[in-house]
Amino acid sequence: MSDKDYKNLPVMVEKPIPVDYDLGNLAVFDPNMVDGNEFDSSNAEREENIKKLTRDNVQLLINQILSLPIRTTTDSVDGSSDQSATVTLLQLPECTTVLPREKPLPKPKAPTKWEKFAAKKGIQPKAKSGKTVYDEASGEWVPKWGYKGKNKQLDDQWLVEMDDKKKGTEEEFVDPRSLSRSERKNLIRKNERQQKKNLKNGQVSK
């Protein structure tokens, strides 16, 4: 059957036994019996029979998808505001078929030295306070660390107040901005060393 013949096939497909759908996974399950001879490797029309069966079930799936609520929106193309394209969105329902994991479950990490000590002493971990903090100067929520983090705020200040405790000491003429960057780098190196130490302790404990 040619591509033109496939295009002329009817959109409505009838099955003796209704098929089951899992639209969340874009899947259709056909419980209808098939003739084994039609799909036997010795049958010259085997590939054509597979295409026909697949086409009918895919058509049923598409019919169900198009029956879902459709929302049309207009979004910019390539980030340009002077061009626009109509985008059609379909909200798929929740999946009903449980699929196996692609990869095995990750192995539990060995507890660090601190975690072992905390468990022994019954110390509870501190509640996480989030990754952002409110910046009163800009009126926005910014990251605490990393790119444009709050901990780098000192780097962008053109005027920095000198700490009275550093007057008359060797650090009096040290730029606090460069000192802040140096302290961050030292802290990063310290954390890296601690991570390597924890990994080593975890391997030894096994």
From TrEMBL:
Localization per Swiss-Prot or TrEMBL: Nucleus
A GO biological process held by the record: ribosome biogenesis
GO cellular component, one term: nucleus
Region of interest: Disordered: 165-206
Cited InterPro entries: Ribosom_reg
Residue spans of biased composition, Basic and acidic residues class: 165-195
Keywords, ordered alphabetically: Nucleus, Ribosome biogenesis
Major localization class: nucleus
Function, in words: Involved in ribosomal large subunit assembly.
Family membership: Belongs to the RRS1 family.
Protein name: Ribosome biogenesis regulatory protein
